[in-house]
Request: fold
Amino acid sequence: MKSMVYVIILIVVLLLNFQIAGAADNEYGTVKARFNGINATVTGIELKVGEPVEVQVEIESKINGHVTLILLEPGITKAFDVLSGPSKVDEKISNLNIESGWSKTYTWKLAPNGAWKDGNAPINLLVKFYNTKLKNDKIVQFTIANPYILDEQYSGAVPTPETSASPTGIQSKETPFIPVIFAVGALMLAWRWRRKQS
Reply:
């Protein structure tokens, strides 16, 4: 009986880890996002004003219909400028009359513009899958990254909106591996619970 409890806890922990590291998914489509190559949601990043970053979004539709997406900044003060990409921040991108299996990858290069400093500036994503046959939609939305904007000027090379050169010297801190911390904590709780039961 006790070993069965361990197996169940381990399975739950592993499923939670895959959900955290995986993509946002529903019956209408799948959405994956990365911030400087790190799977969303990214925290623990500090950026200087003007420091370029890359946001990449992959979308796959499981339905015939329409797919729209918006890269969002939730605050009133817009902290990022788009150096290159398919849209501005808070601007809708529409893909009409797509078929099941359709997929597309979008890439933006952004940089903090200095309008917001000494605080976090989340970059969010909203994707709406609209099923034309059933005439309803399903929305996927999440935070891609929540960087802290320093009150310091970036001194590395920064691409301008006219060029598509890759940024050099991108400095980012890797996020702590939260799922592993959660898994170890859950296993320790199960172990202590077992010891109390004995």
Remarks:
- Confidence is low (pLDDT under 50) at residues 12-22, 162-178.
- The CA atoms of residues 18 and 179 lie 9 Å apart.
- The longest strand covers residues 103-112.
